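note to self: dont lose this again. the chain is below, predicted strucutre after it. 757 aa total, dont forget to put it in the shared folder this time
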Amino acid sequence: MLTKICFAFPPSEKPTFPTWRLSVLKAIAAIAGASLEKIKDPEFSGCLPIKCKTPAIRLTDASGWVTEFGAVCRSLGVFMASGAGAADLYPSFQNLSTANEKAGQIDQWIDYCVHELDDGHGVPLVDQLTKSYDAQTFEDLAKSLRTSLSLLELHLKTNTWLVGNSMTLADVVVAATVKYFFENVLDAGKRKSLPATTRWFETCLSVPAMEQALGKVAYCSKVKVPQAKGGKQKKKGGDKAKGGKQKNKQQPQKKKKEGKGSKVSQLGLDARKLEEFGDWYSEVCTKSEMISYYEISGCYILRPWAYSIWDSIHQWFDGQIKALGVQNCYFPLFVTESVLNKEKDHVEDFAPEVAWVTKSGQTDLDVPIAIRPTSETVMYPFYADWIRSHRDLPLRLNQWCNVIRWEFKHPTPFIRSREFLWQEGHTAFATKAEADAEVLDILDLYSKIYEELLAVPVMRGKKSQKEKFAGALYTTTVEAFIPATGKGVQGGTSHCLGQNFSKMFNIQYETEAIGGKGKDFVWQNSWGLTTRTIGVMVMVHGDDRGLVLPPRVAPVQAVIIPIPKADMTEEAKAKMEEASGKLFDSFKSAGIRVRMDDRVNYTPGWKYSHWELKGVPLRIEIGPKDLDKEQCVMARRDTGKKDFVPWKDCVEKTEKLLLDMQKEMLERARAEFNDSIVTVTKWDDFVPALDAKKMILAPWCEEVAVEEDVKTRSASEEGAGAKTLCIPFDQPDLPAGTKCFASGKPAKSWALWGRSY
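---
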């Protein structure tokens, strides 16, 4: 059992290794549950080279010192994999062929880190930022660093971890170095080109041992350039003073005077929504306490702030579908391979995403068991047993559950994850007319979730043949749009499955045929909505200060913040406490979700930033002057507008403001949504509109081959190719003879095109 790792510094006046390498030892020790012991005045005789470039290690009292960083990492990895440690950071050599391959890949990334990142960039950049700064040299190094990191970025665009499907020693080593670059060298603008690397890095730091060893990341917002003596910054090419010496005219900038009481909050976002959207979104989701990153990439912890929003959606939709006659149920998470493969088109579409259970402990299962990516094949064998007669119809069931869809690229909280929460409805009818009617009823409810609860506008329409649900007769959808990225998001889908699945699973019923009993296959629907709704809401409404929550789903609709002053009398403080308490009670009695923030260990400014970041719709302030006037200050999160409101009018004013905010947030979002749609009738205008982050309404021939061709031809440096988002229900006039914008063939409809998540 690895219980102790001894380390020592090289016998030189100053260490020659990057200081963050010690963090790697701390992380490995923490993961293995081992202690770190520093040895003073070590005996390095027999070790080569003596002037090592890392903290040297010794794993046993009898062993010699290992002094080179690559060798240090391999020694620790092999020692732990041999059974001496609890972590699987390095492959076990019980399966030599697999282990050698994996070990080679890990070694390759460690060598890349040591030689390319540390020695090639880390050491000279540290020297620049601590000793001999030269502006041009620093910029050249930073540019070269981004080129080197582009290799890492390219790999992580299609991989969760550097090697395999879990964290290895490669991730530990490279993340420690990347942390230095992210904190000291690469500001938000320079990190913009590294979204996959940033996601991977934050996933690494979500592992408790890594965060414990490396510490929390403080992203660089501006490079801290060292100052020469006298406060003058060293700069290449300055003006020469008398005697030929260079003189730098640039004086240190004077710090701007801040307004009375102004403070720089540590809660704010480093990234800007319109400049570094990926970084901004990740920061908003984590700093607002919506999610925490989990050790397994693509899986996220939904914290109470996010789950409360999902709960609001759940409760509203559950009540609506029950009013339609839908009943809730629950089916198992697992499905056998034979049942999953029964519907060919359906399973082919999901095959890459299916996760399989192949072992129980150390025993291989006789038959692998799939984890549901969706539940059609789980539920429909039982529908065949339960449905016998027309009297058993309609059968309308819904389940609230999780599903697993494993293979994907670019995990994004709420938008694209391996596990997500959703509801899935599965219904059976005697006639197509009944099924068609329900498809639109459910789609209308999905539209209301977005527009009435989340204040997000959507386009209702039908999916193309290429984009419809696998195995469905047709698919309807509500499509949202993120103007900041120019990408559409499929918000929720309602499918008519026709009789395809009923024929596959033999779901028949006895009809009310005249002159005797006959049999027919049922008509089926399925429909689903996921936690993606939350991500869309964040992307549409959030700003550079954090979340902006629509009042109908906000976990807290109003926060009351008393603002006592240090010189207030005890009597005045008691009066403020009493006034705040009465206001709080009146809000609760009126059904307003309210929070009192009377914490004494935080300043008012910190509290303002905290609740702004979390998106609380209304902030209510009560200061010393407000006591005398028996009023409070109400500040809106969406517009920042403040009103002075008498205490007696607070409840009524708050109720009105919450209604106004909900309405106005939708109106603003709808105006931006509509402005993002452009009409195009010829190909030459199509890609420029896409690159301008627009959705495009264009006449189309509705042919699959043409849609595939458009996707290929429309890919550019600005983004991936376009696809049809939907064929809108609300169709503009299509004059006779109108040609398809892409093929020149006769157009059948107007289709909404765009890039998408």
